[in-house]
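Why show two proteins at once? Because comparison is the fastest way to build intuition. When a single record is shown, students tend to memorize it. When two are placed side by side, the eye starts asking what differs. So, the first record is below.
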Amino acid sequence: MRINVYKGGTIYPEDKLLKKNVTKMIGKSPGMVTVDLKPYNLIVDEDFSIGLELLEVYGKRVGLVLAAR
């Protein structure tokens, strides 16, 4: 999947804050998956939204639960 970070906290994405292409392969194994955004020096001091873009599905089923802390 691709991770996008946008300015603004609405349901409609505004300016893209994360300029690099950040992707993460998620396998079949259950458990928490993390993505470290520290290397991208992203500093946000206002409302923002995060978009997760499913790029490709391997197999016939997709199961995904999202949570944040």
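Second record. Ask yourself what differs from the first in the token line.
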Amino acid sequence: MPTQPPPEQETARTRRMNALFFDKSSSGWFGVSSVKFRVGAPPLRPLPVESVYNARFPPLEGLGFIEKAKEVLAANGLGDDEDADVNFIGRMVPGEPWTTQPTILIGTQWLDSSPKVWETIAIQLKRYVDEMAAPHGFDVAIEIMAPELIQPKYISPALDENLPKLSEDWPTIKDEVVGILELFPATASHMTTISLFRLGYDELVTKANPMTVYVSLDYESDQLGWDPVVQEIQCYLDGFEHDLHVHLEHNVLNHFAFPLVAPNWDEAKIEIQNPRFGFQVNPQYQTAVGPGADIGAARYITRDDQHQVSPLLGTLGCYLEIQREGTPGWTKKAFARDPSPETQNDLDDKIAFFDQDRHLFGKVWAGSGYTRRTKTNGRLDWALIEPISQDRVKGGQGQGQGINVLPDRDEWKSTQLLPRYMPYSPTFGTPLKPPPDGKRNLDQLGKDDLGYKIGTSTGATVGVFNSVQTDCKIGDEKYMGLKNPYSTEYTFIGHAHHSPDGRFGDFGDSGAVVFDEEGRALGLLFTGQSPNQCPPYGINFVIPIEDVFEDIKAFSKGKITGVRIANP
């Protein structure tokens, strides 16, 4: 059973935590990791870690691991079945099946005495399983966790009667917390996100969950050094009137571009994951392309190891029109599903679609790259695409080409949303409206206003505006030598009250246009993040549309004098 990866597979995500101390069994020395709510031997991998209930380890069956675990628990004062839940299962890092390891997983309450008691239990059980399992070639792990790391959590916007004062204080709080993180080696330069929202275990009354300063750290951050950091930050937060609580965890931003690499999963796992990742797209392929369509590079990518992979896939946001210096009129540019065929005719039609090059949309005409920022340090990530022909540009029914048509009544009804969470009905099936003149439209939203979008993976969805901004860092940008790798972003939070699964955006939705209840463009969705133990909806980051328009003009060095939403 592989518990150590080939060297090229080991990453910070799969690397084990540092050991707090070492002990010895019949197999030799082993480390013990011990942090709040979680103890393990050998040292555990960073959360989240999945339980693989269908994993089978035949040579180990019948060795009495669960019975021995209960015996050791009883000897250490945890003898009642209500005190601990014991399982013998596989545990793996999500998406890394080679990390699957047979594990005695124990769930029990965390008390002041737990660190020493749990460490003792882990040592005694590890000695036993090494003696029993080593002759069969297995390394069995011991993992003890508190319910705080197992129970589902729920996220909601930072709504509060004192929100105006909190919003005023937030920039100062955010900067000071980041400063504290930089004082400690375990967290310095490892932050990936700092945000403010409600986070807790109450699903029905989310306003009862604590107002949380959420800090995510990359997987290089050593969790053994977090306790003094948390204490220092919480001491600082207690000096405010807002009853804020700090939470640190390992987490990184999601890539909302869709990875097209064929999954190396069996049929059962593909069937389970299909509702989220949308491996099957029901409509027939379309030559004309409209907002919400998937779009990606029309070529395979060769990695450094010469392995050929599919490009990432995102969403076409909407059509824009640009006006160039010295050129009359406006030019249209694009602003950045298939089931298993039921009949042979379906299959023939789909093959012909590619054979006739109808899957080709256009060429990148201009793009921002990854390093540009707004005046307020927001991320700028845009591309303009020149369609290869006008039959690729989709219009609404009875309307001209290049019209940005919003979801119609049938599409909104198919989401099963309650009517009060839908945009105004006059927007159904009508063109996307331009943002109003003046300040950013996102700046005009209130603390509980809704935003809408149409994306490749999730279709038409709704999210709640979170009126305090988030600082975040995308992992890939650490290689780009940016003076300040963090950007400050507007966020929306999905919620199960607003759609069946609560998602606002997901893989494949990068670039989707976000609009308000009146159908006015707000911005472009570009990425997101889900806190650990939360449903997948999480927080979603949006680039203001006005900032993109201004940057297109600035990027052109005066050659583009106007940018607008394409209208009939």
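One difference worth noting in the second protein: The first strand starts at residue 21 and ends at 25.
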